[in-house]
Amino acid sequence: AQRVTQPEKLLSVFKGAPVELKCNYSYSGSPELFWYVQYSRQRLQLLLRHISRESIKGFTADLNKGETSFHLKKPFAQEEDSAMYYCALGGGAQKLVFGQGTRLTINP
Amino acid sequence: EPEVTQTPSHQVTQMGQEVILRCVPISNHLYFYWYRQILGQKVEFLVSFYNNEISEKSEIFDDQFSVERPDGSNFTLKIRSTKLEDSAMYFCASLGVAYNSPLHFGNGTRLTVT
Hints:
Strand content of chain B: over 45%
Oligomer: heterodimer
Strand content of chain A: 35-45%
Number of helices of chain B: 0
Shape of chain B: globular
Helix content of chain A: under 10%
Structural class of chain B: mainly beta
Largest interface: A-B, 19 and 24 residues
Order of helices and strands of chain B: EEEEEEEEEEE
C-alpha cells in the first residue's frame, strides 16, 4: 500500500536557520514524489517534484530510495516560508497520497 | 495563469440534506479529481474522473457520493444525504495531458454539516 509519513506536525525555526521537513514513503513500485505548499488562505501549490531535481524558492529535496525518504531542505529560512507543507506520492494521472502535513513557522 | 475555481467557498448544510460542490477545472485539462481534508487531518483522495467516467475511487467515496461533468466545463461532487462527518474542506483538482503536467488545485470549499 502507498503511504506517506511526515513525522513532524509542527516545526518552528528562526529566520536564517536551516530547515528540514521530513518525509518517508512506502511504495513497492517506482515512486514519484512531490512537495506541495499551502500558504495561509491559499490553495495547495506544487513546490517541487523529485523528477525535476530543481530548486524552488531555495528549497531542494532528494529522493533517497534506500531510506525511502524525500526530505525537503532549505539552507536559510525566510519568514515568507511559513506555511503548511505536504509531501505526496503518486503522480501522472494516478491519485496522490498525501502525508499529514507539517506546519512550518519561521520566527523573526 | 489559469486556475481551478470552486464554488461556494463555504457551504453550511443540515444533516441529511443534499449538497453539490462545484468546480470549474482548467479548460484544456482532461483528468479531474476530488480530495477532502477533515480539520486537522491529511488531504485524502476521493475520486478521479476521466473520459466522462470515474477512473478510481477511494473507500470514502461510497454510494452517498457522486460526480458529474454535466456540461463540459463544470465538475461537480454531490453528497446525497450529508452526515456530520462529511464536514471538511473539499478540493477539486485537474491535470493536463502534457508530460509532467502538475496537478492544479482549487481553493477548496469548506463544508460544514450541522
